[in-house]
Amino acid sequence: MNLSLLSISYKTTPVDIRERLDIPAGELPELLPRLKAQAGLNELMVVSTCNRVEFYFAAARESTALQGLMTWAVERAGGGDAARHLEQAALRLDHQAALNHLFRVACSLESMVVGEPQILGQVKDAYHTAVEAGTVGPLFKGLMPRVFRAAKRVRTETGISRFAVSISYAAVELAGKIFDSLAERTVLVIGAGEMAELALAHLLKAGIGRLLLVNRTYAGAVALAEKHQGQAMPWESMDEALAMADIVLSSTGARGFVITPEQVKTAMKARKREPMFFIDIAVPRDIDPAVNNLPNVYCYDIDDLKNVTNQNRQEREREAHLAQRIVEEEQNRYLGWAEALSVVPTIKALREAFAQVAGREVEKALPRLSGSPAKDGLLLERTAQAIVKKLLHFPSTHIKQVAEEGDGRLYAEILAAAFGLDPDQCRGDGLLGGAGENSDSAESGDSSETLGPSLNVVPFPKPSSRG
Q1: Of these residues, 50, 107, 299, 426, which one is catalytic?
Q2: Nearest alpha carbon to residue 286 among 1, 19, 5
Q3: What is the tens place of the pLDDT at every residue in 3-27?
Q4: Is 50 in the active site?
């Protein structure tokens, strides 16, 4: 079963559509089995971040599966223009192209900011959620450990993370360009999650004057305030906090806007029209983009940060080339492992077939044992020869057939390699000498038949005399 992918990402889809497709972590455990059943999938893992919603899956009918997933995405996005956009912009990949994309995503080579560290954790969370939901099987369980190993190697063997500019860092850099100095500015951080705390760390390094923190759970705001010497304020005091803030950085998990134009108008009156700068790094967005229409108000969302993240691009690209080599190496290792796994049923069938032949011959021989070492030794020798003769019957006849079609030497070489034969012994008269002339008797003869000269098999040694 091959890997397939349906990807909707920042590269082709704007944030106003991506935010409609965003899947909260709490929704995934219930959504995964339902989507798997609706789209007719064998396995499914969904990676949903602020920059992408990607469906990695395996299905017997890929086209039907893709259509099922697209139907869900279009309905989630609300149809209309979004539907037309998704039909054109959604990326569809299968097998090696899908594998390469997954490796690159986990290694942060497909991120808006190449080298950012958060994506690996997000992919790991997506996989563990799918495992708990029961929507992954042998494909993902064999693949994902190798994906994570590749990402670890990229982190340790390249300098890509040294040149990564996270979205949070980019947001703070942008604030520094809007205001000449942050030392006298009051910053309001809305949210207490990972992205908010990352942004907070960069703000503190930039040397801000005052820090306010607001979160729906007041205890979360208090914990961050105590950790970073800020002032926690209740969610109900949002309007008061806005009036004091020069810079507002928002990153919550809310499903709708938490800051509206009306709130900002009120804050601007209290501020006597002093400029306000909003940075919205949440998906779905926290801040109504209509605030941009207000005088002296500037609002940037996650897509607006792309230009800022282009800094250090040359160094990141150099390291990204090294990272891609690791990706290709680990991907090839996985493909080799998967290919080797695909022959296991053949090996099992071969063993079972050989065991059946040996078992039948032994069953024939057992009643004929006499207790006489000489007679029984001869019987065992003939039984062993009969087993060998029957095992070699099909290869012996088939090698002559393929030789007549011009592929005999290749077939002989494969057999020699499979059985560890000396290549020098397989030249001249062929791997099995004059095999095939009398080999039909192998199917009809019993264990007492002599092997015959046609197979040129080395005779079994005679039992040694003891005395």
Answers
A1: 50
A2: 19
A3: 999 999 999 999 889 989 999 989 9
A4: yes
